[in-house]
Amino acid sequence: MSYDIYFIKKMDLNSDNVYDIMETNDPKPNSEIFLSKEFMKSLIEEMKSEGLEFKIFEKNDKDYFELNFPTYQLSMFNSQIAISLPYWDENSNEGVNNEVKQITNVLLNNDLKGFDPQTENFITEPYDFSQKFTETKTAVDEQ
User: Fold this and answer.
1) What number of other Cβ atoms are within 10 A of residue 65's Cβ?
2) What's the pLDDT at 129?
3) What is the dihedral of CA 11, 122, 85, 91, to 10 degrees?
4) pLDDT of 35-62, one tens digit each?
5) Which of 22, 31, 43, 100 could form a disulfide with 27 if both were Cys (CB 3.0 to 4.6 A apart)?
6) Is the Cβ–Cβ distance between 34 and 9 less than 8 Å?
7) Axis crossing angle, helix 130-142 with helix 94-109, rounded to the nearest 10
8) How far apart are CA 67 and CA 55, in angstroms?
């Protein structure tokens, strides 16, 4: 299990459409939510320029990138970008929280809208997820 945060390129993202959009697998290039490979590459370069360190996995036959950080990953698809943080103690620290804030800032500054399905909150500013992550992790650990 992991704590997931999604980013979608949709101007009117709201509680009525977010889950349907998150289930979209292969949007057409002319779709409002479509993320091109060039756009993904520009986001990767911007994250590198922010000082973030990660390893990149690129799926050659599809427009897909996976950015692997030491304890979590960011996946880029044509329909969305997702940050997945496993419920590990290491992901509860301030360093990971600051990295997620940096990533969130880059994505928001590039006209993506964020959504945290654990809290059902939309993300409009760099996200301090640490408290919600810790609360959710505690609930998961107790199961």
Assistant:
1) 19
2) 67
3) 130
4) 999 999 999 999 999 999 999 998 776 7
5) 31
6) yes
7) 120
8) 6
